[in-house]
Please model this.
Amino acid sequence: VVAALDGATRARVLEDVARGIEAGVAGILEVNARDVEAAREAGLDAAKIARLGLTERGLAQVCAGVRQIAAMADPVGEVTREWLTQNGLKVRKVRTPLGVIAMIYEARPGVTIDAFALCFKAGNACVLKGGREATRSNVALARVAHEALTRHGVDAGALTLIASSDREELRTLLGLSEEIDLVIPRGGEALIRFVREHARMATIQHYRGVCHVYVDAAADVGMAVEIVATGKASAPATCNATECVLVHEGVAGEFVPRLVERAKRDGVTIRGDARVVDLCAGVDGAGECVEEATEADFGREFLDLVLAARVVGSMEEALAHIARYTSDHTEAIVTADARAAAEFVARVRSSCALVNASTRFNDGFSLGLGAEIGISTSRVHAYGPMGLEGLTIERYVVEGTGQTR
Amino acid sequence: VVAALDGATRARVLEDVARGIEAGVAGILEVNARDVEAAREAGLDAAKIARLGLTERGLAQVCAGVRQIAAMADPVGEVTREWLTQNGLKVRKVRTPLGVIAMIYEARPGVTIDAFALCFKAGNACVLKGGREATRSNVALARVAHEALTRHGVDAGALTLIASSDREELRTLLGLSEEIDLVIPRGGEALIRFVREHARMATIQHYRGVCHVYVDAAADVGMAVEIVATGKASAPATCNATECVLVHEGVAGEFVPRLVERAKRDGVTIRGDARVVDLCAGVDGAGECVEEATEADFGREFLDLVLAARVVGSMEEALAHIARYTSDHTEAIVTADARAAAEFVARVRSSCALVNASTRFNDGFSLGLGAEIGISTSRVHAYGPMGLEGLTIERYVVEGTGQTR
Model:
């Protein structure tokens, strides 16, 4: 039903959703406050409660996001390629909706609207299962979407919210391989493992990001310090934050002390290998912000103001470290040597490889895709930021003049 | 390892595989004869034994296929799109191998070489599990591939053949979600169900094809008869064969008798609804080749010289029939009315929609993709003929000049 709607109708429904949320702000915040209160009583940790809470400003951002999605070009029906075969068939590849997308997520109630908006814009129906603690908020937000759908004569089944958080029910949902085309789990490792274990249809993981920056022998050290420092400190809890810097021994003597200075200012702790620690020996204040790394600090997503650091003897050694610890998310090189950059990019196989830029750019907004439903670290269907295109598939349309062979 | 090889080396390995098969034809045929003999003794059905048997001519075709794949443009590293962001980042989408692809298939030993050639050309390693009855032949063919790999210094792990047909072992294989990126089952429904039930990674189905042709009120009846008749008779056991014709009542009176005449000549049995049977009443010889259809004949893949037929009152009715019985494979319309064609194409969501052409064209060779690993009816990753591009994924490569935000 959703796939058959024309793009203008889909856009109008989404504009109506934004208006509906604006009109209902007071009620939504009230219901959300009850979710937050219940979470406090249940003793949820502070980070979870913070993610759960909605604000007037947060809702305004959700609405702005929905309007932005509504205004984007309609991906459905886009002809991505066209050619003629030898026997005169005109072949086109045409974007078409995936069908029914299930999304399993935790806490943040704003995702309910974001995910619906992206799926619906791309012509898909969605089944959303949020966290138990956000149930009241999710129900209130889904109601706004249902009202907008109904107002435009669209089946409310375009958005199915599953309020229950029963694992058995989730397992049943994950078994519906005929009804659901794709499952996207977003959340902690336990959730992703559960989904992968039980899903009988395709799943796309938007998993952890252990992003590396390799500071090459030919790096501009000032640029490298800036890229590494902001890559961690600007948003330490995001999946595209820099978690580990690998610095070539040829520039480590200059780079490490300057990084430590920045780390001190930003409140970042550096967990360095022995050589990094040695290089910090004479640096003022290094005692407070540099610690010796253990093996467990490599390949780790700190989600905090902590950065791993290691000195390497060559790019080869850096690539070997990355191959061992990569999460397939994002890796960057800082270098003025175009050949080193080309080799790094060719040999790293993560969803995004950057040259002389921060790992934080690996998201849909920064790369110019518009909104995204997440950053895929699965090497199937979509890899990297997954925007509207990632919520469609290309089919073949062929025009002939009576050809039979 | 395979992903890091340059395209020229990958092509040379494949040329060597073709040469190796040619040099070893006698030995391969001998070993294959033992597989066939064992299958006869085990009482396998004739169709399976026919698929199992290799001939000199069949092996020559396999070699020609491998050479064709070797000669195709290298998909790895292809830049599919390129743009500049507002802050000056140069973003490219670049094709990269999927990683490790497992293929589970039955009978036909030639698939062992086809699948390896396609996966390897696209920079992937593959794990192949053929049918038990073809074990000797598959081992002989894989040995040729291993020799070619070793000769070029490539790790023989680029092709892992699993000779065992133990279901427990297959289950273990399907659990290796960290090691295998994609599983492609090719075979009967039982195999596909087993794989879907146990796979902990993405699977792409290449499933049955229940292909429909709708003969519109504005059809050129001669063209329609030709498209429907050859769509069935030219290769009745293929997944893109026409299984059901839906004819508009406005042209049924002319179409049905002419189709019956052709069916008689081709040895095709028509299973028609009551109206089709009525229209055949006066047709010479209809008694032998027209039967009344039961409900089970719709939505059925006959894999035989049998064609279902139904008279519909409108295109709407045809679309409703297709929506109910589609296998998401292929649907065609025959019409001289461009608006009817456009509506049909827009409302059908199968992997291929054709106008005035045979359903048999939905394969990689006919559509100009070169070789294919199968025709996907999954609406994720690849939909329709899956060629080299379908065995890759696009990643992001970003070049900056020191951008941090």
Observations:
- DSSP finds 14 helices and 17 strands in chain A.
- The first strand of chain A starts at residue 79 and ends at 84.
- The two ends of chain A are 35 Å apart (CA to CA).
